[in-house]
Amino acid sequence: MSKQTILFIFTSADKALDGKPIGWYLPEAAHPYYALVDHFAIDSASPKGGLPPLDHVSVENFKDDESVKFLEKDPAAKKIWSETKKISDVSAADYAAIFVVGGHGPMIDLAVDKDLAKLLQDFYAAKKPIAAVCHGPAALTSATKPGSSESILSGVKVTGFSNSEEAQTPYNDFVNILPFSLEDKLGSLGGKYEKGADWGAYVIVDGIILTGA
Fold first, then answer.
1. 0.85 exceeded by the pTM?
2. Does the annotation mark 134 as catalytic?
3. CA geometry: angle 4, 48, 7, nearest 5 deg
4. What is the CATH number of domain 5-212?
């Protein structure tokens, strides 16, 4: 029996509003990939397709075995992060679940990508798992329930990169660098935001919505 396939979503944004370099965050793709690849096939997509921009700070900060293997030593993994399809060309019907890779990039493009919003709505309607980590939940903020203007996050327990964590980064400006506060945005959509200790692992599963910080 062939494996079911999970779709990884990568950002195509390489700059914050002020021009600071951003992208996808290495361990937030590598660690989930190796947790899943023995059990599922993995595919990938991004708004522009092709090679998504990698946050090189994450390469410098994470030299663990899985991150290094994912980036440099595993041809199958390299294909996932270097040859993404366009989001507009994929269908929820072909996948068992969707996962949004973190990094500051999703705050810029995935949060307002109409093709992704429609794709997420299709996953939601099919009751297929929707997952995101760190800044990745920003990608879920424009998706609404089918036939409604209500967010798919309304009434859902959710987590993601917190204001207190952002305050410790060079991106702590929700006007000139980032377009919004992720923590505040999740709450404004009716999400029941929760967090753990800063920089600690924290995961929430509420129905088909899975979010991590």
1. yes
2. yes
3. 10
4. 3.40.50.880
